[in-house]
Amino acid sequence: MSTLLSQTVNGLVLGSLIGLIALGYTMVYGIVQLINFAHGEVFMVGAYGGLATSTYLLPGFLAQQWYLALPLLLVGGAAVSVAVAVAMERFAYRPLRDAPRLAPLITALGVSVALQEVVRVFYPGAISPLPYPRVFVEGAYVLPIGDGVPIRYTGALIIVVSVVLAIALQRFVDHSRLGRAMRAIAQDRDTARLMGIDPDRVIVATFALGGVLAGVAGILYGADLGFVNIDIGFQTGIFAFTAAVLGGIGSIRGAVVGGLVVGLVKALGGQYLPGGTAYDYVWIFVVLIAVLVFRPQGFFGETERVRA
């Protein structure tokens, strides 16, 4: 029983992180109908941005104070992710905005590989995993459930930050002027333009918001696991994309729920299903296929209406 509870907690922590990244996938798709396969690399460069901030900009005496070091790393990592996401939109996707869907899809794959190679070539020591600075309280809190279920402080931080950011994003999209412009462009870009909305500015803002979320997720990933490597963007990005599809791509609530489902399947499937962790990809995609067979639009997606 204690193992089940521990794996459930681990799944919730992982799922919260995946859901945070999946928000970037779902926002971009909801606005420009683009599956941005390079978003996992935006998460990866955010983690390296935080590492660079710690290595080159963070004074030694601040590194010992987590309440000062963590915000600085979050700002540094998010800034790098936003810069990469905005540049990606401006130079890779905008010229292809009216092209057939296959063109930006292939471009996204190319951008993903290019970002990995840029980090591999130019970041010192990135050819192998790099240790990540401990910028949060180490140790674990024992939840009073059953015989006691430990949860690392960094794991609890991931859950809290993910929930707060997801709620804030939903309220921002629902109630802010920019959020209303996002929803207008998602419904009909040409009509939104006639109403005085600048689609380019709104789309750039969407990529920037996705970059902030991915950058924060990158810092939390490094702080929790204690290392980063250039493969984390592809590996975690696959899980996040699956979560976005599972929840209903285009839905903020769906991205969060999809992330939790993926995290729980990975943690519990690795523990109890045949093959263990070696087959966790298999079980995640089995669940995805099973859901899409009965509900192709995902948990919270809307059925697409095709006009004759």
Structure commentary:
The protein is mainly alpha-helical and 308 residues long. The protein is built from twelve helices and four strands; from the N terminus they run αααααβββααααβααα. The chain has helices spanning 2-32, 39-57, 60-63, 66-93, 102-122, 153-175, 177-187, 189-194, 199-225, 232-247, 252-272, 280-294, and strands at residues 130-131, 140-143, 149-152, 227-228. A two-stranded antiparallel ribbon has the order 1-4. A two-stranded antiparallel ribbon has the order 2-3. A hairpin with a 5-residue loop joins strand 2 (140-143) and strand 3. Helix 2 (39-57) packs across helix 9 and helix 10 crosses helix 11. The mean pLDDT is 90.
Gap between N and C termini: 55 Å
Summarize the main sheet. 2 strands, antiparallel
Shape: globular
Relative strand content: under 5%
Task: Give the helix/strand class.
Answer: mainly alpha
Series of H and E elements: HHHHHEEEHHHHEHHH
As residue ranges, the low-confidence spans are none
**In DSSP terms, counting alpha (H) and pi (I) runs of 4 or more, how many helices?**
12
Mean pLDDT comes to 90
Helical residue percent band: over 70%
